[in-house]
Amino acid sequence: MPTLFFIDPWGYKGLSLDLIGTAIKSWGCDCIFFFNYNRINQALPISSVEPLMNDLFGVSRVNHLRQMVTGLSPDERQETIIGELIIALKEVGGEHALPFEFESQHGERPSHYIIFVSKSKRGYLMMKDIMFGLSSDDNEVKRFGYVPVRSPQLSLLLGDYDRPYSIPALRKLLMNVCAGRSLTVKQVYEDFTIDTPYVMKHVKDAIKQLEVEKLVEINIPAEFRRKPKGILSLADHLTVTFPP
After folding, report:
1. Residue 203 to residues 3, 89, 123: CA-CA distances in angstroms?
2. What is the dihedral of CA 102, 104, 105, 107, to 10 degrees?
3. What sign for the dihedral angle of Cα 110, 15, 70, 90?
4. CB-count burial class (<10 Å; 0-12, 13-18, 19+) for 48
5. In this structure, how many other beta carbons lie within 10 angstroms of the beta carbon of residue 199?
6. Is-contact 37 113, C-beta < 8 A?
7. Which residue among 158, 186, 205 closes a domain?
8. Contact, 99 vs 88, CB < 8 A?
9. 217 and 188 in one domain?
10. Does residue 203 share a domain with residue 127?
11. Is residue 45 pLDDT above 90, yes or no?
């Protein structure tokens, strides 16, 4: 029976790759699990919980991970740990994984993650839309994180945190990966935004900008498409032709 599992270990004891792999092994089965980043990050070098870390990452990976994170900055350490976890999830059948970060109320460091794992691209894209809508990040391309309410002083510390994702970056990406091809808007989104924070809105905005600059052609030109509320439409089924 198709099932959505939610796994909350109230810490990390009992959370394992085998458990997650078993949850998603059948058709139509997806999993959301609670990943206590703060405690797991602290536990990595502690020998008394080594069996639990082995269950969560795999023996060879966790040994390698301990070496990788030595000397890294907090941001680099976070990126490395989550990245290795995503790779491990793929090895147990989780073709698509989507982490949603919750920041600590006492600072800018993450406290935990909710991580969605699926074998289905459709399920992954649906969850991406949901997480995009719930993200408290106010940037155009969100980083899929919930930031609790803090004092104005702490909010100022965030500043203009530089993120590698943007509509200009997406435009360049699409011009490269789609070069010489004719694809529907839906195909562009589903085939070339996996493992990125881009949602359909970003893809349509990027394509419409490329159309204005005459860098792509759409089978129904802009002058023949509707403009509800003054905004040019771009239906999912329209075909976009990218130059070689």
Report:
1. 30, 27, 19
2. -130
3. negative
4. exposed
5. 18
6. yes
7. 158
8. no
9. yes
10. no
11. no
Q: Which residue has the tokens 């990406």?
A: 173
The CATH code of the domain that includes 176 is: 1.10.10
The tally of domains found in the chain comes to 2
Phi-psi map region of 236: left, alpha, beta (phi>0 left; psi -120 to 50 alpha): alpha
Residue 145 has pLDDT above 70, yes or no: no
Q: Whose structure tokens read 């943007």?
A: 166
Determine how many CB atoms are found less than 10 A away from the CB of residue 89: 23
- Is the per-residue pLDDT at 113 higher than 80? yes
Q: CB count, 10 Å around CB of 131?
A: 21
Residue 151 has what pLDDT?
32
**CA distances (Å), origin 151, targets 101, 103, 104, 160, 170:** 20, 14, 13, 17, 34
The answer to whether residues 46 and 96 belong to one domain is: yes
Comparing 141 with 190, the larger pLDDT belongs to 190
Query: Residue 143: which pLDDT band, with cuts at 50, 70 and 90?
Result: low
Q: How far apart are CA 4 and CA 119, in angstroms?
A: 12
Residue at a domain's end among 158, 176, 199: 158
Q: Following DSSP, what letter does each residue of 181-242 receive, concatenated?
A: -EEEHHHHHHHH-TTSS--HHHHHHHHHHHHHTTSSEESS-GGGS--GGG-----TT-EEE-
34 is in which domain, residue-wise? 3-158
Q: Are residues 67 and 109 in the same domain?
A: yes
The backbone torsions φ and ψ at residue 98, rounded to the nearest 5 degrees and listed phi first, read: -135, 105
Most confident of 62-66, 191-195, 237-241: 237-241
